[in-house]
Every structure is written in structure tokens, then in C-alpha cells.
Design goal:
- With about 325 residues, this protein is α/β, with parallel strands linked by helices.
- It is built from 13 helices and 13 strands.
- Strands 8-9-10-11-12-13 form a six-stranded mixed sheet, sandwiched between helices. Strands 2-7-6-1-3 form a five-stranded mixed sheet.
- GO terms for molecular function: adenosine kinase activity; ATP binding.
């Protein structure tokens, strides 16, 4: 469950980033001052449109890694009714063999995300629009939708959705906890733990698997007064936070770009990523989402955790060689 967005990506220069006060590698929510950014980006010569939204990307990658059967993953989110971008998202979800059930409303158009690429960095500016209109009572609570939730074994929600519908997340998280199923969450962006800390900490006791990258982990550690910047220590301390379902120990997985991934499970371990020549990196859009997708593909197939990390590293390595969060027809992961 998450924010379905259409990614609008283009290569920009430093002046463009400065004009809209963007950091080269960041994720933020659009404000009024960014309205013109979207208009300017669309006019660029090589603009690309890709179906995006962090959670939806991860579910697609998990499906791609698994291949058969189709529709392993079900996705909930909100789009605009009968608008062009919503139509593209529906079509792309179908092509990726995702069982997408969108809540369609007429108040706001389908959300977009500007991906401003400089070198191998990407600065994301999300205009949630319709994605922000997801309503628990209008969609999640409907019998036919809740049945799909009950049928699932693994749940994944990106932290971005904490700004949209905390009550929907808590309903799913509690269901997972009560039924000893796996509930996974992503820290998603520094602004989530900085400005939506209360929401995040309401959900944390139900989290079985927590994902994040090094900048999110650092912001999280700072907000929670962990008094450490060491990635392994942060993983350990995040693992030790209060947990409702005592039958499962929390797993914390923190990535660091080209540096080793840290995972806290029985113990804290690090795993080197696959080497890549920088000239083969097209853009890093969706790298973190792909990592999660690869990991989830291992989890649902009940593979050992080190194999889940291996699948995660493989998926991320494929995605950074391509524009946006796109992938070849089949994986060659062994």
C-alpha cells in the first residue's frame, strides 16, 4: 500500500537544482514554489515518463524477480478518476503483472514525481495530489479489499505513506502482528522521521523488517537520540526498539549506496554490494525500491536472509544500469 506516482525524469544541471533549492540526492514533498519546476522539467528535450511510487516499484521488482506465478503482489493506492496519468499507471501495473486495486477519486489528479538527475544522483520532488486522498473507510475497509489483505503473508509499505493514511497502515500492521505475518516498512526519506516521527513511532512496534539507507538511518538515529553514527550500531538499536509480536525478532536492513549493506538479525552483519563501473550507472532512481523488491522476493519464497540480501543487491544493480525503475524482460539471478 503506498503512493502511486508517475515519475517525470530528466537530466538537469546544478543551476536547476539551485533555482529550486534542491539537494542532488534527496526526496522531498513538493511545495508551492515547486509548481514551475514540473512545468520546466516537462519542457526539457529528453523527458521520460515511468510508472513510479516507491511501494509500487518494490512490488513490481519482487514480481519480476519471482516471474511465475503472476499477480504475487497486490497493491493499494489512490489515483485520479479517468485521467491520463492514472491510465498509464494502470496499464504499467498490468504489464508488470501486479494486482493493483486503486481507489479512484475525482477531487485530485494522479500524483507525479519529478526526478531531477545530475550525474549518478537523483533529486525527487513528489507532488502527491491524488495519492494523498487514500481513505481507509472508502477502500481498505471494503470487504473485497480487506479479503486481499487477509490472504497476504507479507506486507510492505514505504514510509512515504505515513504522511497519507496512518490509520490504514496501523490496521494492516496490527493484522500482521496478530496473525504472526511479516510487516515491512521503509524509512523512505529523512523528512519522514524528522516531521512525521510520531506517526512512524506509532507503527514501529509492529515492524518485523525495517529498511533504510545511510542518510535515512542517520536522521532516524538523530531523532531517536541513538548517539551514534555507526551504521551497525544504528541497525542494532533500531532492532531493539519495542516490538508487539515477540514471536519474531525484528530485522533491520540498512543500505549505503556502493558501500556494504548492514543487517541486524541474530547478529549484525555486513554484505558487500555487487561491483559496478560508474560509467555503467544510468541513474539511481528506484535503486532503493529495487533493493527492497529483491529482498521481498526472497522473503515470500522463505529463503534465508543472506539470500534475500543477495537478491536485493542483484535487483538494485540491474536498475541503476537503466533509466528510471525499469528492468529487462527476465532476471538472470541464481
Amino acid at each position: 500500500m503506498g503512493n502511486p506516482l508517475l515519475d517525470i525524469s530528466a537530466v538537469v544541471d546544478k543551476d536547476f537544482l539551485d533555482k529550486y533549492t534542491l539537494k542532488p540526492n534527496d526526496q522531498i514533498l513538493a511545495e508551492d514554489k515547486h509548481k514551475e519546476l514540473f512545468e520546466e522539467l516537462v519542457k526539457k528535450s529528453k523527458v521520460e515518463y515511468h510508472a513510479g511510487g516507491a511501494t509500487q516499484n518494490s512490488i513490481k521488482i519482487a514480481q519480476w524477480m519471482i516471474q511465475e506465478p503472476h499477480k504475487v503482489g497486490t497493491f493499494f493506492g489512490c489515483i485520479g478518476k479517468d485521467d491520463k496519468f492514472g491510465g498509464i499507471l494502470k496499464q504499467k501495473a498490468e504489464e508488470a503483472h501486479i494486482d493493483a486495486h486503486y481507489y479512484e477519486q475525482e477531487e485530485k489528479p494522479t500524483g507525479t514525481c519529478a526526478a531531477c538527475i545530475t550525474g549518478d544522483n537523483r533529486s525527487l520532488v513528489a507532488n502527491l495530489a491524488a495519492a494523498e486522498c487514500y481513505k481507509k473507510d472508502k477502500h481498505l475497509d471494503l470487504e473485497e479489499n480487506w479479503e486481499l489483505v487477509e490472504k497476504a503473508k507479507v506486507y510492505y509499505i514505504a514510509g512515504f505513506f505515513l504522511t497519507v493514511s496512518l490509520e490504514s497502515i496501523l490496521k494492516v500492521a496490527k493484522h500482521a502482528s496478530d496473525n504472526n505475518k511479516l510487516f515491512c516498512l521503509n524509512l523512505s526519506a529523512p523528512f519522514i522521521c524528522q516531521f512525521f516521527k510520531d506517526n512512524l513511532m506509532q507503527v514501529m512496534p509492529y515492524v518485523d523488517v525495517l529498511f533504510g539507507n545511510e542518510t535515512e538511518a542517520a536522521a532516524f538515529a538523530k531523532e531517536l537520540d541513538f548517539e551514534t553514527e555507526d551504521i551497525k550500531e544504528i541497525a542494532k538499536k533500531a532492532q531493539a526498539l519495542t516490538k508487539v509480536n515477540k514471536k519474531r525478532q525484528r530485522i533491520v536492513v540498512l543500505t549505503q549506496g556502493k558501500d556494504k549493506t548492514a543487517m541486524a538479525s541474530e547478529k549484525v552483519e555486513t554484505f558487500p554490494v555487487l561491483k559496478i563501473d560508474p560509467k555503467h550507472i544510468v541513474d539511481t532512481i528506484g535503486a532503493g525500491d529495487a533493493f527492497v523488491g529483491g529482498f521481498l522476493s526472497g522473503l515470500v519464497q522463505e529463503k534465508p536472509l543472506d539470500q534475500c540480501v543477495k537478491a536485493a543487491h542483484y535487483a538494485a544493480n540491474v536498475i541503476i544500469r537503466r533509466a528510471g525503475c525499469t528492468f529487462p524482460e527476465k532476471p538472470d539471478f541464481k
